[in-house]
Amino acid sequence: RAKATGGNRLQVYNEDIRQSSLEQLRLEQDLRRALDAGQIQVHFQPKLDLHTGLLSCAEALARWEHPEEGQIPPSVFIPLAERTGLIGQLGKLVLRIACQQAASWYQAGYNIQVAVNIAAQQVESGHLVEEVSQLLDELALPARLLQLELTESTLMEDAEAATLEMQNLRARGISLAIDDFGTGYSSLSYLQHFPLDILKIDRSFLMSENAQTTEGTLTRAIIALGHGLGMQVVAEGVEDEDQLVVLKELGCDYAQGFVISRPQPAELLEGLFAEQKKKL
Ligand code: C2E
Ligand code: MG
Ligand code: MG
Ligand code: MG
Predict the structure, then answer these.
(1) d(CA 264, CA 270)
(2) Nearest C-alpha to atom 23 of ligand 1 is from which residue?
(3) Dihedral over alpha carbons 250, 254, 257, 261 (to 10 degrees)
(4) Of 113, 128, 189, 196, which one is least surrounded by beta carbons within 10 A?
(5) Nearest alpha carbon to residue 114 among 276, 280, 266
(6) Ligand nearest to the CA of 237
(7) Please, which contacts does 272-277 make with residues 24 or more away whose CB atoms are closer than 8 Å?
(8) Which ligand is closest to the CA of 200, given by its number?
(9) Using one digit for the tens of pLDDT, what is the confidence trace for 199-214?
């Protein structure tokens, strides 16, 4: 009996694996096709400058509308792209769309910096600086209007190569941010070795109601750490007004989150940008 159960369990387990790897394979093929057909979209989520009250930056976020399955979340297709080597192509596409958008906003007279998420493989490729430089030249986009977001794990994969790449990007005038700060496992000492301009506090550290809570203490400490190292600090995942008030009190430089705006197609943000330009 025990044997039979074990056998069954094994069968079920195998069936699960077979199913999920088939699904993975299918999804991989679909993603490949979507990339070739240019079916990856980019939405933008603005960041609010807490000192001036102006929207000054927007993060580019990849979106994939699958013809049958609808929206596939980035938490599914980004890791898939990373596992299958498609992230290079995807990253390139997002970078291009984001820079085109930045150039078009620049030409329209909006002073909006665009931030793009960069995967480890893009840094490792050794072509990032060249790729970005070419885009800036081609689009006549000032480098100060481009920001690249890197995560701790991306930086740690080959810290030496990453540092070199980052120095070159920075020399070109591009700003560099560390994304999801605080969610990695490496020691803090790495922070002073990388040439970084911006620190993005992961939303898991955001306080619920007031600055007196544990999360408030952590947020305060991370802001001090970032400022101490000469970085500007962004809080991500800000969902309510109270958090905004507290972040401002704590001297945080920028806020990004649903309370300000969800990630949206670029056209929908233009109204907001135009409105604030009128007020200037
Ligand atoms: P991320 O770079 O940390 O981006 C912020 C994520 O938080 C986005 O999720 C955004 O929609 C979400 N978010 C923003 N405000 C709020 C809020 O107030 N509450 C909550 N609950 N969430 C909020 P999204 O678009 O699903 O992207 C998830 C992750 O996928 C990104 O995290 C980034 O790591 C990755 N990703 C997205 N696009 C790209 C890309 O083009 N290239 C690479 N390499 N990674 C990307
Ligand atoms: Mg990001
Ligand atoms: Mg993040
Ligand atoms: Mg994230």
Answers:
(1) 10
(2) 237
(3) 130
(4) 189
(5) 266
(6) 1
(7) 272/46, 272/55, 273/55, 273/105, 273/108, 273/110, 273/112, 274/110, 276/54, 276/55, 277/109, 277/110
(8) 3
(9) 999 988 886 655 556 6
List 234's β-bridge partners, or say none: 200, 254
- d(CA 209, CA 216) in angstroms, rounded, equals 9
ipTM, 2 decimals? 0.98
Give start and end residues of each alpha helix (H) in 37-158.
74-84, 87-107, 120-124, 128-139, 152-157
> What's the average model confidence in pLDDT over 34-58?
96
Q: What confidence score (pLDDT) does residue 4 get?
A: 47
Sorted by sequence, the CB contacts under 8 Å of residue 175 that are 6+ apart come out as 113, 144, 146, 147, 148, 197, 198
Q: What is the pLDDT of residues 73-126, one digit of tens each?
A: 999 999 999 999 999 999 999 999 999 999 999 999 999 999 999 999 999 999
pLDDT tens column, 56-65: 999 999 999 9
The residue to which tokens 């947020």 are assigned = 219
What pLDDT, on the 0 to 100 scale, is given for residue 123? 94
Amino acid identity for residue 130 in this structure: E
Alpha carbon separation from 174 to 17, 69, 168, 195 (Å, rounded): 44, 37, 9, 11
* Mutate-to-test residue for ligand 1 from 43, 117, 157, highest number of ligand atoms within 8 A of CB: 117
Going by DSSP bridges, is the β-strand pair 146-151/175-181 parallel, antiparallel, or unpaired? parallel
Q: Determine the Cα angle at 245 with ends 239 and 250, to 5°.
A: 110
Ligand 1, pocket-test mutation among 64, 78, 122, 149, most atoms within 8 A of CB? 78
Closest CA to 148 of 127, 129, 126, 164: 129
